[in-house]
Amino acid sequence: MQRAWFATALTVLAVLATACGLFTAPRGGSPARPPPAAPTTSPVPRTSPTPEPPPEPPPGPPVLAVKIDNVAKARPPVGIGAAELVVVEPVEGGYSRLLTIFGGDDLPPLIGPVRSARETDAELLPQFGHPTLAYSGAAPELLPLIAAAPVTDASDAHQPAAYSRDRSRSVPHNLFLHPAALPQGAAWPAQSRPVFGPTPADGTPTDHRRVDYPSATVEVSWSPQQRAWLVSMDGEPYVASDSGRLAPSTVAIQQVAVRESAIRDAAGNPSPIAQTVGSGRVVVLRDGRAFEGTWNRPAPEAATTWTAPDGSALTAAPGQVWTVLTP
């Protein structure tokens, strides 16, 4: 009787345990585990790291801009073979004048002959940051424009100790600059320095180009031996007394709008202004070939760019670069 009672008790306990869920088992016979607790927070989505922008190219060396006389009586020039960039500008009387851009501390001891600035310079110079500008005066009407331009005025009136006269030449074609005596300009902005690169695609084989002004000519002839363009002025080789024949690696013939200013020279000729902000046609000469394209400069502080018809950049060959502004 006791055995029957004990068996009945075990049966009752098993029923109670099953009802409470203590010994439930799945069909496979293994004890069931309680379901995992639901997460209390949402998972953090993965994000890709933001790429770092490429570093901007560092600025270049300090900039010195020097205005150079370019009539026959002013030749030969001195020091301009060391310039990184030479700009040929139209001036009154149908002649041309040069704006030379030097970068770095390795300047020639003497540069010249130095002549007066023009309104074209006031528009050209802002793209070079805040250069030191060396010139030999300007028309009274132009001086406020130079004062307002982003330049350090280093004319002979402001820095007389930096200039001297060569008595073997005639006035006013005999003023020369000693650049070491001038205050240093600001760094050359990287975006406005000449862009060097491999020879662009296509192009037309060319060994000679000539630009005519009313009273002057500029010619360049390709020299395969020197890999450079030999410059002639008014039909004569253009030779610097300290460095020899001027031979830039790249010449850009840049067509610009030219208008008359209210300023006139002593003979009554109006001073032309070459407009270098805007866009127009350009022919880039390098490596014995001519590349047609477009020049563009949207604002005074912006750099001038050259672009091929397909939108690719027209780069310069390493070496001195000339830009010839032509109407």
UniProtKB/TrEMBL annotation:
Signal peptide coordinates: 1-19
Ranges of compositional bias, category Pro residues: 46-61
InterPro entries: DUF3048_C, DUF3048_N, YerB-like_sf
Domain DUF3048: 60-185, 211-322
Residue ranges, annotated region (Disordered): 26-61
SUPFAM superfamilies per record: YerB-like
One Pfam family hit: DUF3048
Keywords tagged on the record: Signal
Domain of life (superkingdom): Bacteria
Entry coiled-coil feature ranges: none
Name under which the protein is recorded: DUF3048 domain-containing protein
Origin organism lineage: Bacteria, Bacillati, Actinomycetota, Actinomycetes, Pseudonocardiales
